[in-house]
Amino acid sequence: MFSMITNFFKTGPDAPRLNLSDAELRKRFTFRRWSVFIGITIGYGFFYVTRLSLSVVKKPMMEAGIVDAAQLGKIGAILMATYAFGKFFNGVLADRCNIRKFMSAGLLISALINLAMGFSSLFWVFFILWGMNGWFQAMGAAPSVVSLSQWFSKKERGTWYGIWYVSHSIGEGITFICTSVVVSYFGWRYGFGASGTLGVLMAIALVFMLSDRPETQGLPNIAEYKNEPMPDPATASESLLKQQLQAMKYPAVWVLGLASALTYVARYGINSWGILYLQEVKHYSLVEAGAILGMSPIVGIAGGALSGIISDKVFNSNRHKATLLYGLLQVSALAVFFYAPPGHKWLDVLSISVFGFAVSGTVAFLGGLTAIDLTPRRVTGAVMGFIGLFSYMGASAQELISGHLLEKNKIICDGQCVYNFDAAIYFWLGSAVLSLILAMTVWKVKPRAD
After folding, report:
1. Residue 111 and residue 115: Cα distance in Å, rounded?
2. Average of pLDDT values for 167-172?
3. How far apart are CA 369 and CA 157, in angstroms?
4. How confident is the model at residue 427 (pLDDT cuts 50, 70, 90)?
5. pLDDT above 90 for 317
6. What's the domain range around 66?
7. Does 4 fall in a domain?
8. CATH number at residue 329
């Protein structure tokens, strides 16, 4: 059974080279590159739609007495934990897989789980389903970056990676704005239903948009196509597993993983609890809170898209200088968002917008781009998976700790639960500061050759 599954997903054999003129080759390569790029960008955005649906329905579920904050923390934590290990495992697999099949299947199953969530009222069912969702969510990021490395050269990777990274902003925007409206009018069950339906439709579209490696279609390797140095034959003859294990021993990769884990604490503190924070502390309605938080991913599109361009063009591909710029913006925006008094909507919108811009770039660098620049192209998926393991263990710990802090500090006022966010805010903001400090310790590390 397992061998049947792995044979279905594994990358195809190299096809005989097509006899094409330069113009025909350029036309075919350009078409496939654009199709793949649009597919992984929009497609990965819909992974977020089927991951963040729980964030929008938290308050309605608590008000209905379905779950409490601590239970929601456990449900969120199990997704992040299975996602962390799944991202590592699936990242290793992605280097060997047909990305068209692999990524499409992951989104389809995640969407079906969202549909199932809307039919339950039991905590243990939510816990199991959302834990399963985490594993299949992990079939999105690493395959996307593997596909990016297969179809785009190293010199242009920073720019295209930065643009691809807006995908999470697309998904967050759809969730925080559109799903919030659905939940407000029809209830929390329909929120899961809407997310699941959109995910199914996008999974079908990915089957037609994505492609296996260029070599499987009779096209040249991307390095050959772009006239870049080909991989060292001695390195190429080494087993892929050996190279993957070597890459995971690089100290800089471990440091970047820890820095990414801490920035994911701040990121998912906002993504998972931001709407509840705006409702409880700033006294906004669900639609208002969703609209305000929705500004983060909308502006984040610009932050992510510009991150690669800024690091490539302004800082001459120095990711560390760009990380420092984005990290300082992120910490400053969080401080304003949390400590601006209620009643200043324009300040809430401005600060969350700056945060969205900054966190998109910070996560782009710490969550993968810097690490894959420091390691050979062949191990892109494994490195992304390894960094992802750290990142989402941080996000998982955030869910548990934040849920515990909120439940511990709640008070009952006139029969209503009121949540105190002070301890959670110290946790989120402190993690962002520590992440930036760690990231700066690898400033002088040099890239490894392909």
Report:
1. 6
2. 82
3. 9
4. very high
5. no
6. 27-213+239-442
7. no
8. 1.20.1250.20
> Domains in the chain: how many in total?
1
191/175 Cα distance (integer angstroms): 9
Which residue bears the tokens 């495992």?
Answer: 89
Q: Is the pLDDT of residue 53 over 80?
A: yes
CB 206 within 8 A of CB 104: yes
Helix ranges restricted to H, 340-379: 345-364, 370-373
The continuous run of DSSP H or E covering 419 comes out as strand 416-419
Integer-rounded Cα Rg, in Å, for the chain is 21
At 151, phi and psi to the nearest 5? -110, -5
Closest CA to 289 of 49, 52, 55, 48: 55
Q: At what angle do helices 251-280 and 319-339 cross, to 10 degrees?
A: 20
- In this structure, of 127-131, 232-236, 309-313, 355-359, the range with the lowest mean pLDDT score is 232-236
pLDDT score of 439? 87
Question: Amino acid letter at 303?
Answer: G
For residue 104, being part of any structural domain is answered with yes
- 234 in any annotated domain: no
Q: Is there a domain that residue 398 lies in?
A: yes
